[in-house]
Design goal:
The protein has 197 residues and is an alpha/beta fold. The chain contains 9 helices and 5 strands; from the N terminus they run E-H-E-H-H-H-H-E-E-H-H-H-E-H. It has a domain of 114 residues: Rossmann fold (3-Layer(aba) Sandwich), CATH 3.40.50.300. A 5-stranded parallel β-sheet has the order 2-3-1-4-5, with helices on both faces. Helix 1 crosses helix 9, helix 2 packs across helix 5 and helix 3 packs antiparallel against helix 5. The longest helix is centred in the middle third of the chain and has 29 residues. It is globular and about 55 Å long.
Amino acid sequence: MIIALTGGIASGKSTVAQTLAKLGAYVIDADKLGHHAYLAGSAAFDQVVATFGENVVGTDGEIDRRALGGKVFGNPEALKQLTDIVWPAIRAMAEQAIKQAQAEQPERHVVLEAAVLIEAGWHDLGDAVWVVTAPPEVAIARASARDGIEPAAVQARIDSQISNEERLTYADQVFENTGALDQLIEQVESRWQALDS
């Protein structure tokens, strides 16, 4: 089975993914794929440079994510240009990783973890969509404490993503992460056991 896992900032999505990995799932992290999506020599690298200019290339010859971020942050049109390049590249890598995982261990459950799963249209890669939610005020408090950033900055990031309500319209399973960490882990363990029962 392929589980497509998503959730907003500080929802506990990564904790769910780590728990599933410990339980035996093969976890594919779309964020990590994103870092590889436009390495020098890739088609996406060439498109990003052609679209945003040579000054997004750092001294190491790779895309300088900070320089690129400066060009797209707060600019919806530029951000869409970037995601139109990068998201298909990440999807292709995710499809390849899923195929490889299934070829190596067909009986093992695969998890595709992606913050932008719904926005990028990758939810169709899974047999089921699992959504982790936390109320905005809880997510803001967690992210502020974890990342040492102002609550207003966290709120701005939450506002730039789709809402929990939108994510839930795609959900086959929902994990409400409002309490202690062990409560979330217990939810994951019980759903995991139900997969094979």
